Amino acid sequence: MTPALLLLGFVLLLVGGTWAWARHRRTGKAIAVVATAPAASAAAPAKPDATLPRLRPLMRRLYAATLHQPELADATRPIEGLQAQVLHQADSLLDCLDLQPQYMPRRPNLLPQLMRAVNDPDAGGREIAAIIAQDPALATNLLRIANSALYRAAGAAPVDTLERGVALIGTDGIRRIAATALMQPVLSLDGGMFAQLPAAIWHYALRAATAAADHAARHGRGDDALSAQLLGLLQGLGAVVVLRVLQETYARHDGAAPDLAVAAALLDRHTINTARTVTAGWDLPLPMAEALMEQRPQRDGLAPATALGTALRYGRLAAALAALARLGQMSDADALAQLAALEPDAQANARLWTRLRAETPTD
């Protein structure tokens, strides 16, 4: 079979899978983007691995500590009355988000160019910097992130030009920073209903993206680091979309005081599926959708099957642990012990931990 026919077959498979997913979403049922063999549906469900840390309880603890409401750590706490109505309505909207284009963020204009460049083995950091330079605001944002404690070593000279960023950070580093800077405007969310949540979401997403890219660079293929970086940011974007839907739902109920327990429940249920909807809408590579499928709440205790899925799980776990440690809810030793369940390289974990514990990731 010729390469052209193989490519055509892949495209048809991708289109068919996306159409099937959208069709099933209209019925309110979540399904995988990639079709599975009929025999797989009859197989017994995989059993959780008791050695793997659970992300859902950690995220609940993080909500509780960030918002100074200890009761948010309890996912079994009932939601009743008007709050239950709001939860149900927002839940229904998020279940068919692909049919609600008004909630979906637009793809950053430069994202296709960036994805093509980073997948081109002949493209260098200067070419990627030239893409970013097309948007002055984006270039300024990139330099600000490049100079943050998360990326620039203490005592190092400031990064004052995109070209200097390439020289100091290297091609892989500038690719990751470019991806972060490209996504940050899309991730923006004003305080609005929950005040502290937007900044917390962005800080968490940035750390998750950094940790996922670090893991993928050491264990994945050449382009996995950028994909992992984007996925870490996209799950933050998924959380932003969930909160926007909730804000508009509350707006339809005069006098209904926002309840953070409702927000926590929706973030728990819908963040990953919403990120997956965005990934499909932006025509991002299929392996990214597969990696997100491996993060669904019902797979919290299961090890991801793909390298990219493992990198994203590691990034999400590392970001949650770092945030809890900064808030005094967990010791560094306990956090690193949990990271070791996904990554046995203690030295790599320690190096990453120093970066994630930087006081303010975007300053």
TrEMBL record:
It comes from the Bacteria. Pfam families: HDOD (PF08668). PROSITE patterns: HDOD (PS51833). Residues 104-298 form the HDOD domain. Gene3D superfamilies: Hypothetical protein af1432. This is HDOD domain-containing protein. It comes from Pseudoxanthomonas winnipegensis.
